[in-house]
Amino acid sequence: MKNVYFLSDAHLGSLAVPHQRMQERRLVRFLDSIKEKAAAIYLLGDMFDFWYEYKYVVPKGFTRFLGKLSELTDMGVEVHYFTGNHDIWAYEYLERECGVTLHKKPETTEIYGHEFFLGHGDGMGDPNKSFKVLRAIFHSSFCQWAFSNIHPRWGISFGLQWAKHSYMKHKLTDEVHYMGDDREPLVLFAKQYIESHPNIDYFIFGHRHIELDIKLARHTRLMILGDWISQFTYAVYDGEHMFLEEYVEGESQP
């Protein structure tokens, strides 16, 4: 039985990350190290800091990462890509060119006989009203159409600058740390969700850039995956056990 892997939040291309090329190479080396052991890989959003697909144009760069995704899917590894709040605007390029399965909203899926609730995590239990308004604008088909009429030279530049501002602002708030069981939005969301869906075994999210592994009920665990900017963390499931791990260069991976 091969492993199933989960990771999120690489924010490739971020103007706030000084080691962009090293970061991408590290991610690619990790994917290369697990390719023979993986049945499936779930990328739970914000793998790019800003991703917008125009009809004939996508953001430049990321060739090592995109090439590795293509290699994995060519080998028969399932690669599932869940969009986050920085890569909402993925449409068909990643599916057509790289062979990934694209998911535009959270989903429940069965893996090796267990029920998983998977999603990026944005918009789930978040009480921030301004974020909800911004998220609704970003998901608006009219606003997406309007943005697509801006030349990529300005549209992509604007998107990257906006993403940098958002990242730097987030770093200055208390929300970069675990807020506690009674305040953490994803924990509150999951606790409410299992009241009507008690068969969920695992909730797995990204978005928050924190590592978290807690038990919500007798058979239900919640994990938040950290990130691939400074933590290089991921979850791995072997069909019986789930682990939250850190990728360390030179060490063999599960």
Short description:
A hairpin with a 2-residue loop joins strand 5 and strand 6. The protein contains seven helices and eleven strands.
Explain the overall architecture.
With 254 residues, the chain is an alpha/beta fold. 33% of the residues lie in helices and 22% in strands. It has seven helices and eleven strands. It has a six-stranded mixed beta sheet with strand order 4-3-2-1-10-11, covered by helices on one side. The chain has a five-stranded mixed beta sheet with strand order 5-6-7-9-8, with helices on one face. The protein starts with a strand and ends in an 8-residue tail after the last strand.
Shape annotation: globular
Q: What proportion of the residues is helical, as a percent range?
A: 25-40%
What is the mean pLDDT?
88
Order of strands, widest sheet: 4-3-2-1-10-11
H/E series, N to C? Answer: EHEHEHEEEHHHHEEEEE
Distance between the termini: 13 Å
Describe the secondary-structure layout:
Blueprint (H helix, E strand, L loop, with lengths): L2 E5 L12 H15 L3 E6 L19 H12 L3 E5 L10 H6 L2 E3 L3 E5 L2 E6 L9 H11 L1 H8 L3 H20 L13 H12 L5 E4 L5 E7 L2 E6 L7 E5 L4 E5 L8
Parallel strand pairs: 1-2, 2-3, 3-4, 6-7, 7-9
Antiparallel strand pairs: 1-10, 5-6, 8-9, 10-11
Label this structure with key terms:
254 residues; alpha/beta; 5-stranded mixed β-sheet; 11 strands; 33% helix; 22% strand; globular
